[in-house]
Amino acid sequence: MARANKSIYSALAANLLIAITKFVAGAFTNSSSMIAEGIHSTVDTSNQLLLLYGLKRSVKPADKYRPFGYGKELYFWSFIVSIMIFGLGGVVSITQGIEHIRHPETLVNPGWNYVVLVLSFVFEGASLIVAIKEFNKTRNGLPWWKAIIKSKDPSGFLVLFEDGAAVMGLIIVFVLMVLSHNLNMPFLDGLASVLVGLLLIFVSFILARESRSLLMGEGLSPETQQKLKELIEADKDVITVKSILSTYQSPKEVILVLIITFQSDLDTEELTAAIDRLRSEVKQKYTIIRFVIIQPQSANIEEGNQSKDIFLA
Known about the structure:
Layout: H1 2-29, H2 32-58, H3 73-102, H4 111-136, H5 144-150, H6 154-183, H7 187-216, H8 222-233, E1 238-250, E2 253-262, H9 268-285, E3 289-298, H10 299-303
Parallel strand pairs: 2-3
Antiparallel strand pairs: 1-2
Helix pairs in contact: 1-2, 1-4, 1-6, 2-3, 2-6, 2-7, 3-7, 4-6, 6-7
């Protein structure tokens, strides 16, 4: 979380300063693409504030209303951020770009735009480097895309995607602005705004997909589940693990439900001791697992096609 905060704060500072300079330059030069870039930076600034708010809410301690804590607040606000990128970033930029393609305006004093774009590229590039370094520390040798898919902390890859889209958007605007100025084709400025909007919509769909998956309740990976099964079935009192259910409440907190078939000759005291032992072993090996709920079944109950639910956490 601390690493994510570092990249969020760096992105927040960069986007706030860049948004102001882009709007000022766009107003002086009548550049729709520069205004679109200003909107992009403003949306990114708002997104970082929402992520920081989500991070703060997610560490709020459990209470009687949320007995498992507020960890999913981070996933909720991450999903909201992805929607904002689509609505306030992508759609507004495309709408404005189409308007300027239909009614192009000649750039006035384009030198202002070039200065702002170069400075923005430096600041956004520095923020992207910070985001890459911080995310790289969490990859554990995995390929980039696989690490993003497996990541349970959206605050890390959200900033990474935002900064990456910002740098790509600046390159698009710079190239088309140079062509618009040198070829006297002012509609290219509007086209740059449309392309930036399409880029933002593409990024928003990727982020919405990942945030939605986390919000809906992603569980432990199949590899981790198999290791858990082997760990539990190695216990002398366990016959088999019937089912493993899990969900991430936050990037650092998992709820685990185990349905286990125990030896039929265990009495209540022995069964309780076995459950306590298994719960301690699981939590000791996997510190990310906060709650362990065990539903025991004895072999003779299973054979008799009966059920008996005993939940211990």
